[in-house]
Amino acid sequence: MDLRLALEIVNLTDAGKVRSQNEDSIITDNEAGFAILADGMGGYNAGEVASGIAVTLLADGLKKALHARLPEQDQCLLVKSEIEKTNGAIYQTAQSQPQLSGMGTTLVCALFHDNRIIVAHVGDSRLYRYRQKGIEHAQLEQITRDHSLLQEQIDSGMLSREEALLSSNKNLVTRALGVDPTVNVEVQEHEALPGDIYLLCSDGLNDMVDDEKILLTLSVLGTNIKLAAQQLVQMANDNGGRDNVSVILVRVLRHFPARRGFFAWLSAWLKK
Fold it and tell me: Residue 189 belongs to a domain with what CATH number?
């Protein structure tokens, strides 16, 4: 099925109100069914370089891999492998150019395939799922779990979630792309349903706008996700805009089962 008929995707990025340059990078591909967001870190313009390399190389790698994939190929392993290759490329670039030494980036990626969403992330950029639960109830769920010092402190009981809101350690990540030769990529797979809205964002959004307001925005503007994206970025800036803020919204319009060709049929038959 053509994913352009099943998915509506919009994206928006803004430097915010404090920073002079935008070190976030985003790429979406409606036809291939993926969205990638990266939040760079490093001195001078190194963060911008790292995030730009991340989204560009990963998008190119995914397109090639998806075009050449076998019918029964594991999509989670495909995404994980491409992110690991991207990590190596960023690391080698930083090693070969002294002015880029120490650069890195967070990453969150969503790939839609066969009525499923594969979510992969490194760092504290997030993916949320907005899902309608009944006629009058909707739920916003954070699917990713931050790879950050703050999250580790919450998990260990050192801080409550209320105390964490006031912490000065919000931006200290424990994993990033390009910092080391290898990286531990967290990958999940979930069922995607018509009506779902998936939000990928840099911490410039969730540090400035709490989950309840994100939920309210998607509840009110979910049928117009372009306007919803604009509203989310505006709220982050209205609340101080202390960081670059980027959002990608993906709305599932209908089911998107994978095409079942001869080889997929043959493989299924042989397993009987």
Answer: 3.60.40.10
